[in-house]
Specification:
Layout (H helix, E strand, L loop, with lengths): L2 H17 L8 E6 L4 E4 L15 E4 L4 E3 L8 H10 L5 E4 L3 H9 L8 H6 L6 E2 L4 H5 L2 H16 L8 E4 L3 E6 L2 H24 L8 H12 L10
Parallel strand pairs: 6-7
Antiparallel strand pairs: 1-2, 1-5, 2-3, 3-4, 5-8, 7-8
């Protein structure tokens, strides 16, 4: 009964690998089934070349394995927290893309400097705080999800308009309506992170994109009256 979400999770994981943002066995993508409150996620530590759809592991929203011969990703508990708290998302990705990780290691948000960023995200990509020693030595992956959710709630950030976050000293997480959308967002995040780094090297005092231009580009693609593309 879980073949469809296994296939979608597999395809999203392979997209990460093909995009070059999840080398070796790094990174993971999941696809959820909200009706049954489960999600399919990459097995832990398996090379991408060896993956098959049948190897995806089914986990419930509490992080318990429901089906599968392999151990699920070590980041499973983070995915579970995000699914429980962000009710509109259908896919989650964690990657180790170089430029996005650079911002995370610096403890810096990725500033919205131009229209490429605005087409993707309504404002800066935030950087959540570093986890404490107690959090790391306790339920580390669950705490990672808790820190992400708390940051969005405390700052009043809409997770549907800002589909990405950095966790300080760790790296990026993205989400979307599906695992494929989350993987596309992970790829886009890496592009805008690289653009931001290069822009800041050229002009370290550059200002963010004007609010009216940010809103125009975001809304024409994602707003109620969006007109980008061919429609549905």
């Amino acid at each position: 009964m879980y073949e469809k979400i296994k296939e979608k999770a597999y395809e999203a994981n392979m997209m990460l690998y093909k995009l070059g943002i999840a080398p070796f066995t790094w990174g993971n993508a999941s696809e959820c089934d909200r009706e049954n409150r489960v999600f399919a996620i990459k097995p832990s530590g398996v090379e991408y070349e060896e993956l098959t759809p049948d190897m995806m592991v089914i986990v419930d929203f509490d992080g318990n394995k429901v089906e599968g011969e392999c151990n699920p990703s070590s980041d499973t508990a983070t995915h579970a927290v995000l699914y429980r708290n962000f009710p509109d998302i259908g896919g989650v990705v964690h990657s180790h893309s170089v430029n996005a990780v650079a911002f995370a290691q610096a403890g810096s948000a990725i500033p919205a400097l131009g229209t490429t960023h605005a087409d993707f995200c309504f404002g800066d990509v935030p950087c959540a705080r570093e986890l404490t020693s107690a959090e790391v030595n306790g339920e580390y992956e669950k705490s990672t999800g808790d820190v992400i959710v708390a940051h969005f709630r405390d700052k009043g950030i809409d997770e549907n308009a800002v589909p990405a976050v950095l966790v300080r000293s760790h790296g990026p997480f993205t989400w979307g309506k599906s695992a494929k959308d989350a993987a596309k967002n992970a790829g886009t995040l890496e592009i805008v992170a690289e653009m931001a780094l290069k822009t800041l090297r050229i002009n370290s005092s550059v200002e963010d994109i004007p609010a009216y231009l940010l809103e125009k580009h975001y809304m024409r693609k994602h707003g109620k009256n969006a007109y980008y593309g061919q429609g549905k």
